[in-house]
Amino acid sequence: MKKLGVAVCAVAMLGGAVFAQGSAESAGGAKVVQNKDKPLVFFNRQPSDPTTGAIDMTSMNWNDKTFYVGFDAAGGGAVQGQLIVDYLASADLAKLDRNGDGKIGYVLCIGDVGHNDSKARTEGIRKALGTWNGSTDPGVAKEGSVKVGGKAVAVVELEGKAMTGTDGSTWNANAATDAMSGWATKFGDQIDLVVSNNDGMAMGCLQASNYPAGVPIFGYDANADAIEAIGAGKLTGTVSQNVDAQATATLQVLRNLIDGLTGADVVKKGITEPDQYGNKISAEMEYRADTKALLAHNTGVNASNWQNYKAGSRDAGIKQSSAPKKKVLLTIYNSADNFLSSSYLPALKYYAPLLNLDMTVVQGDGQNEASCLDKFTNLQGFDAFAINMVKTNSGADYLDKLKY
Ligand code: BGC
């Protein structure tokens, strides 16, 4: 191992100026960019500490072509909380409080205790309902209070549970079906409200054969089936994290970097202003320089506006570009994740050809990093990378493979 390190170092020194610019001459004379100098976007799972949520800036500062594309997680938690509070404000207490005990009892599906999207939603929900007790962990909640039809009513989190599948995967919809079934038996008509960190788990709850009919239920993501369920009166509300804006931005940032853009242009061109091909994402996005994060905005969806979120509408601001064709390798942490497979991946597949990016997608099993990492190979054959990690603190494992 040691010997190899010395050899690589020596070659790098010999390469001098050529290596310093991140490229070398191939035998044929064409410039070869080293993997360590290629564009890299982390998306959907922000490199961070699973316990504290602190952003992993070592990974984010890997090179000056490293960025994160996601959405405003904390803002989204607040949007979900507000959506629930607004619903309760105009609800009929006599109907809502099923056992008439003067308390609103709710159960909470937690996606992944180590993922900051999930943490932010648990926090947003608990803060809105007054049950926040300083931690996003399951079970750490206090009695809250909320206005129902103008009257302050006590709120109790009957149980909050991380939905981990039997295979160890997180955000698991089947685990939510089982949990809901158990909760309906255990708590009966104490359950007045069901809240979930995502739509997949909310739809999973609705699958439970003993789901208490008519009990309001909220999810997150605005997946196509969830939007239809709102239209059908089964799901009460969800939050759109604007998957089209995120998928396009993931690809647009890579496109900009491949095209040699630098500085502010990387996160502006095609995003807040048209790029050289005339493309621009229609939705507003925000760039946070301190974490190198480009974020989409969240919007609440319920019975009053669900029709605006029906599947199939794509961003007309993105048209076929004349950019040179380039190759991107993209990982997805779990092929069974409902949001990524039913919303994010179809959007990526729609926009990549428009941006002339030839995208190779490799998918993991949602529990072992190796399921993704082992397919993160032949790196020299790609011009750029987009990474969705199984664990949010695995950034270093991918960067290690990009070292040379
Ligand atoms: C989505 C979840 C999804 C997770 C995967 C979140 O932003 O809301 O539905 O399971 O990303 O990382």
How would you summarize the topology of this molecule?
Layout: H1 2-20, E1 23-25, E2 31-33, E3 40-43, H2 57-60, E4 66-71, H3 73-89, H4 93-96, E5 103-110, H5 116-129, E6 144-148, E7 151-162, H6 173-187, E8 191-196, H7 199-207, E9 217-218, H8 224-231, E10 237-240, H9 243-258, H10 265-268, E11 285-288, E12 293-296, E13 299-302, E14 326-332, H11 338-354, E15 357-363, H12 370-373, E16 384-387, H13 395-401
Parallel strand pairs: 3-4, 3-16, 4-12, 5-7, 5-8, 8-9, 14-15, 14-16
Antiparallel strand pairs: 1-2, 6-7, 10-13, 11-12
Helix pairs in contact: 3-5, 6-7, 9-11
Bound molecules: beta-D-glucopyranose (BGC).
Descriptive report:
The chain has 404 residues and is α/β, with parallel strands linked by helices. It has 13 helices and 16 strands. The longest helix is centred in the first third of the chain and has 19 residues, at 2-20. It starts with a helix and ends with a helix. The relative contact order is 0.14. The model is unreliable at 1-22 (pLDDT under 50). Bound molecules: beta-D-glucopyranose (BGC). Beta-D-glucopyranose (BGC) binds at residues 44-45, 111, 117, 171, 198, 200, 220-221, 337, 339-340.
